[in-house]
Amino acid sequence: MVIIRNYHDSDYENVKHNLEETKLYIPIWDTKENLREKIRRKPDSIIVADEKDCAIGNLFLIEDGWSAFIFHMAVRSDYRQKGIGQKLMSYAEDNLKKQGVKAVSLFVDENLNRIQEFYKKQGYLSLDSFVGMYKLL
What we know:
Layout: E1 3-6, H1 12-21, H2 32-41, E2 46-51, E3 54-63, E4 68-75, H3 84-98, E5 104-106, H4 113-121
Parallel strand pairs: 4-5
Antiparallel strand pairs: 1-2, 2-3, 3-4
């Protein structure tokens, strides 16, 4: 049985595996120390799908009171197409609603149509005028 819960430090290796498998792992951001600091500041900012003490899926939230972003949503390949991604999204959205957040955004690789379709089924709309960018400081 899959349980959706907040991330624990002991989940790191499984979450890293999920991110690497989905090509979402970013070495400068996704260190164990950075994830530890993220949950120290906001304990519900990383959510995992847990089966038998193994984080088989994860989702990161970035929320500042003005808006929110879903980031790094990943489900281990042998658990896909079983509703786990939808459970993670619902859990995250419910938490954001409880905090008074009115809208949530996310980034999707424009080359991955199946991922775009997944988010559209969850009620997400396309923002054709945005391109994700970043800068190392």
